[in-house]
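User:
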Amino acid sequence: MLLGGLVGVMSLIAASLLVREWSPIGSKEQGKATLQALIIKWNGPLTEAAAGVVLGVNDGVFQKAGLSSRLEVGVDDDDVVKAVAASDRIIGHVSAMAFLRARAAGMPVVAIAGSYVASSIRLFALDTTALQTPSDLVGKTLAYRASSEVGFVVEALISRNAVQRSLVRATEATGTVEQLMAGAIDVLAGYLEVEGAELRRLKVPYRVLDPGAFKIHIPGTVYIASTQMLATSSSSAETFVSALLASWARADLDPRRTAALVAAAIGRAATPERSMTMLEQQRDLIRPFGARMAELDLARWQEFQRLLLQQRVISDPVDLRAAIDFSLVPDVYRRQSRSVQAD
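Assistant: Predicted structure:
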């Protein structure tokens, strides 16, 4: 009991120091200066992945950093990419695959920070169904669109693990939790924060297979800006990243309050209790072992691009060092560290 209390106190102290450390860059200098207008556009319905942004907007963290920000829900990845490409005042949140496809198609967008550093795509099955390794997909029925990010991961999982594709019964349609529960499909491919959250909400006993445990190491979601923004007002992107890190640190200070705010923002069937569970589960996606929050790992992106080329999702390689700003997030960390030392 004493040990548990000590751990709790130490965690609180660490979180408090983190918030101090991650005070947004520029907050001391902004004063009454004119705020820079910024829209943060999400690629569909909000999930707990947006907790940092939700808290940052709600608590004025972005405003303190000098950004007059609002969170806007877009239709999908394509909608967000088009909006970002056409503006120097929008930062978008999209899947890694949508970003590289857009960049390969010549869209003037650049990845500036990671959201889910690791992919949240998982394969779900009812607890009575064997699903421990990719070979268990043999003889199973799945439904997924091959052209989607989920379909791409399933196909990569099959090919990378020498599963005989002809023995997997797959239909070209989007699978649903209802189909899984009704027995229409044996395995549901989806997202931890979407299909996984729905299974938990319905209290359905299930098992899950993580493609990352079987050679599929790909990035999840990213924040993107236009080349125009980076050319004319690059400070906006850096300030956004700094404030985002500060917001996540603030979220960790009071998880219950964060969960309540996020659940209210999500709406639908979200509750503080369910959001709390997902916030805990997504820690490994936001901060994978050996990685810092928001950093974009070149090796992971190179591996991802190889898979995209192998699966013919893109036809030609993208110059990753031109498409992704690998230095922005490390620069923010260094500046924050120097700021703390100066204090």
